[in-house]
Write a structure and sequence with these properties.
- The two termini are about 25 Å apart.
- Strand 7 and strand 8 form a beta hairpin.
- Helix 2 packs across helix 7.
- The protein is of the alpha+beta class.
- It contains 14 helices and 23 strands.
- About 0% of the residues have low confidence.
């Protein structure tokens, strides 16, 4: 494709109206070309912000930040430099650590109507697909990078993904752009650099159009993955317990083996997690799904805990997985602004929503509302049931997993227990029909790896 400012306009039409355009600007030739293209459009320039992520891994990074700021000012666009901690943790490659830090910083910037642009081109796509192939990835990895994807509250767009590296360089030279060269790009220590410097040039001697053909293969994989995702979604819907956010193990095992693995992978996508490796998939089945019903198996991975309880398979954030009731009960939370959602300690939100049955709105509006968590010994009377009931027994009857019980918000109206999460409402406050309020819990928003 020819690189012209109009290609940016056409790419942005997918997201109209666009509030702000964030450019991932490293100072290199690719991102400089993308920034120059956007700045060349008077209707876009006021909405553009060039963002330099300062990884702090090289001594010259400060000089690059200055160069990027001066370039942005010369082009008449806003500029931000964001320092991040890109040090690799145990078992993490430097490339992965830098990428995760970079994406987290960009994600935090995104608001509704914002579009983040990266300058990856066709050769970057080639390297990505080859790396995924060598790592034994499935269809998702072999699909390469998408040209656009939801990202945080906005979108991530790669408008140059169909352009060749030579087209990018030709544009840079034609407009006499000045860019920085990262010396680490010459080091073959990193897998991508090894491909770029040693392997791809050799392959292109034999297959000059390799970037085009591999990009086409990635497109075929993307189409196959989308079709397979539809099938997996249908099977997932039949196995997934929406109320408990868990998989039914008997229903899962009733599927053919390949479909079982497909559903597990779809579940991971639903949870915005990376696809489990083949080895980890084997452990899910061997150590959790096929574990004895009397056991309490737990499997940790990606900051989550896989657990089995009463023929249900749960995947919980690590802080929620092994959670035990605290020795020190949490203080009550006063719900002062009942029109607004209430932030709970686990990051979820509690909200009162209109309903035809529940707690009368007139009671809700004029009462003193507070939220507490289980301390032990709580009892509640229920509609159409005699006597009071201990929460412990109700939890057991309803098959609520033990780790969820201390997280369930207990709603108190004028000091009286009125509701237990979204499950039960006290007979004292329950109205079968009328202008009522029921509780709604919205889980904490997940982070989406892109």
């Amino acid at each position: 494709m020819d690189i012209k400012p109009q290609c940016i306009v056409e790419a942005l039409q997918l997201f109209a109206p666009v509030r702000r355009i964030v450019i991932g600007y490293s100072g290199g030739v690719d991102s400089h070309v993308l920034l120059h293209l956007c700045a060349a459009l008077p209707e876009l320039r006021p909405r553009v912000t060039a963002v330099y992520i300062h990884h702090g891994l090289q001594a010259v990074a400060d000089d690059w930040a200055v160069h990027c700021q001066r370039t942005a000012e010369a082009l008449g666009v806003a500029f931000m430099a964001i320092p991040v901690n890109a040090r690799a943790e145990l078992g993490q490659s430097p490339e992965e650590a830098a990428r995760n830090a970079r994406y987290a910083a960009f994600r935090a910037l995104m608001g509704t109507g914002d579009v983040l642009m990266f300058a990856q081109h066709r050769e970057d796509q080639l390297e990505t697909v080859l790396l995924q192939l060598f790592r034994g990835s499935g269809l998702q990895g072999l699909s390469g990078m998408p040209d656009h994807i939801g990202f945080g509250a906005g979108w991530l767009l790669r408008p140059l993904l169909d352009a060749s590296q030579q087209a990018v360089l030709d544009y840079a030279h034609a407009h006499q752009l000045q860019w920085v060269e990262d010396p680490s790009n010459l080091s073959n220590t990193y897998d991508r650099n090894f491909l770029r410097n040693s392997i791809v040039p050799l392959l292109k001697q034999r297959w000059p159009a390799l970037d085009k053909t591999v990009a086409r293969s990635a497109g075929h994989c993307q189409e196959a993955r989308q079709l397979l995702s539809v099938i997996a979604g249908q099977q997932f819907a039949a196995v997934f317990d929406e109320a408990r956010q868990a998989l039914s193990i008997p229903q899962l095992l009733a599927l053919p083996e390949q479909a079982q693995r497909l559903v597990i992978r779809h579940w991971y996508g639903h949870l915005h997690l990376k696809m489990p490796s083949q080895a980890f998939m084997g452990r899910i089945f061997a150590e959790v799904i096929h574990a004895q019903a009397s056991g309490n198996p737990q499997l940790l991975g990606q900051g989550h805990c896989l657990r089995r309880y009463r023929d249900k398979l749960y995947c919980l954030p690590i802080q929620a997985g092994p959670l035990q009731p605290s020795d020190q009960p949490q203080p009550a939370i006063t719900w002062a602004d009942k029109q607004a959602p209430l932030l709970l300690p686990d990051g979820s939100y509690l909200q009162g929503v209109p309903a035809v049955s529940g707690i009368l709105r007139s009671v809700w509006q004029h009462a003193e509302i507070a939220v507490q968590f289980r301390r032990g010994g709580e009892k509640i009377t229920l509609p159409k049931r005699t006597g009071s009931h201990c929460l412990k027994k109700l939890y057991q009857e309803a098959a609520i997993p033990p780790w969820q019980r201390p997280l369930m918000p207990l709603l108190y109206v004028n000091g009286e227990l009125a509701a237990v999460g979204t499950v039960w409402i006290s007979a004292q406050f329950y109205q079968a029909q009328g202008d009522c309020i029921r509780l709604l819990v919205t889980p904490a928003a997940p982070l989406c790896p892109c």
